[in-house]
Amino acid sequence: MNNIVSCEDLVITYQSSNGPVRALDGVDLTIAEGETLAIVGESGSGKSTLGMAMGRLLPSEAGREAGRLEVDGMPVFDMARDDLRRLRRDTLGFVFQNPMVALDPTMRIGRQMQRAMGRRARAEDIHALLERGELDDPERVANSFPHQLSGGMAQRVVVAMAIARSPRLLIADEPTASLDASIQDKVIGTLCRLRKESGASLVILSHDVHMIARHADRVAVMYGGRIVEQGTTARVLGAPVHPYTRALLKAAAGHEKPGEWLTPIPGTPPLLTGRCAACSFEPRCSVSRDICRSSRPKPRTVEEREVLCLLAGSEAERKEVAQ
Amino acid sequence: MRILLYFLPKLIFASITMLGVSALVFLALRMIPGGYADVLLGPFVTPEAREAIAVRYGLDQPLLVQYLNWLGALFQGDMGVSMVTRAPVLDEFLRRAPVTLELALLALAFALAGGLPLGILAGIAPPGHRGGILARLVGALGASVPDFVLGSLLIFVFSVWSLWLRVGGYVSPIEDPVGNLRTMLLPALTLSLFGIALVLRTTRDAVLRVMTEGYITTALARGERPFDIIRLHVLRNSAIPIITVVTTYFGFLLGGAVVVEVLFSIPGIGFFIFSGLENRDYAIVQAGVLIAAAVFISINMLADLAYALIDPRVGSGRH
């Protein structure tokens, strides 16, 4: 199977007034054609940076410092401007977190859809695409301004716009975070159904591990600008190996039994200014050893998934799981 | 309907504002020392002569009566008679209005032609870009050089080297369009420098703000050309603050550019009000200020109408 995305040792740094901030600290990732990959992590883990990097949609203060990122065989960071524009238009489809921000408030939905579909799109085509996005009464929707729609409807419009040109890769950055809980599942369901119909790959960036468990083939857990654990959803979420993945699952609400407590992860994610020489999760890790403070973990395969933990699979780590 | 409901309160407020303006200008004029009698008869005026003039123009009556008389006449379309020329004030204003209008339109055109493109450029240029630096320079210069300084400088330069343009005086555009342009270009340019800076800075700030909006990222993500993004999204969404300052600026220009009109001896409304003030010709100044305020308020109402047309959220009760 071919890879739609391949990313090697990608380092991305933001220039801020307080000096450089390293958002991605060497990311290795491949996404196969037609698969649904979820990237999970707290805010600040670098997942949005990674998602936006796939379309080179990072703000101007962010730059690639090292590494390679290819989408559909094209080097995203070394492309001519027009080629990049064509890649975004024909190969990529983005769904953003907040549809009310992602849509132009002064332009009717139909016109914005047409911009996404191309000049030759007729009103019938726009209505048909809105219907594929499961919007009833597409005529009314096309005639509306964004503020006249509900959040769920607006997000369906954004989803429909993203698939307008049958992209090969859909990137959804927290696609349901701004929506009411009651419609989150429906909207993500629509997104996944449209992905299946088109055979595109889908990347979902989210912190909602339960939603991901239902929809993703594979999961990549990000922490401190690196992917600390990746593998099939069943392996990674069913039997996590990295201490961070385990902590993340314990902190996630949704499947706890009555009377059961959620365990927050103490501390905050690190703000890196340069290459992290140790394990970036070590300060918050409950099983850390001296070695975690002195050497940078390399990807290893443990129990059928790739993990960035010096202790994973070791005796000390097993004990913690047993507790 | 949405637009009507949106406008009704604005109309009521506008009427209250006009009433306030009329009272203020009436009071303020009578508080400045000296009167028409001093101007007409000189410093050695006798009390009897002063009294005669006061009686003749009704200035001997209580202030409130004078004010109400004036208001009553206003509602019948009578703005009074100039003490100096004895001509009805309204006719004098109507005669001068086209001159000020032409000057205002020219200055506005310069301000937009200079300010808009430079402002957009400054808004989208990456840091350190040459166009952005030029725009910033023009913005700082235009906002800090007063019109009488620039006007005097231009008068000095073009009096020495004519360079086709003419300094001072006024030629009717109907009789001699080219000659009219030759005299009007310099004052219009003087007036517009501040406008250029104003439009430039407002446009730049508005564009900078819009460029960080999510829908710009969306447009980039669907592969739009930069030119289309500016045309479709940036201009429309940054229009409201730009329209606000442009209309305020235009209202200010229409109220008569006193300094520039006096400097270049242009017989417009500003010059007229200025000489009316010098002569303590109350009717002229009162009517002039009232007309300027009415024009200013009307133009701002037009701007409000433009907001409602540009942004569908305005007046719909949902922001």
TrEMBL record, chain A:
One of its GO terms (biological process) is peptide transport. PROSITE patterns: ABC_TRANSPORTER_1 (PS00211), ABC_TRANSPORTER_2 (PS50893). GO terms for molecular function: ATP binding; ATP hydrolysis activity. Its main location: membrane. The keyword Membrane applies. It holds the Pfam family ABC_tran. This is ABC transporter ATP-binding protein. It comes from Antarcticimicrobium sediminis.
From TrEMBL, chain B:
The keyword Membrane applies. GO terms for cellular component: plasma membrane. The chain crosses the membrane at residues 12-32, 103-125, 137-164, 184-201, 239-264, 284-310. It is found in: Cell membrane. InterPro entries: BPD_transp_1_N, MetI-like, MetI-like_sf. It is a multi-pass membrane protein. CDD domains: TM_PBP2. Residues 97-303 form the ABC transmembrane type-1 domain. Keywords: Cell membrane, Membrane, Transmembrane, Transmembrane helix, Transport. One of its GO terms (biological process) is transmembrane transport. It comes from the Bacteria. PROSITE patterns: ABC_TM1. Coiled coil: none annotated. Belongs to the binding-protein-dependent transport system permease family. This is ABC transporter permease. The lineage of its organism: Bacteria, Pseudomonadati, Pseudomonadota, Alphaproteobacteria, Rhodobacterales.
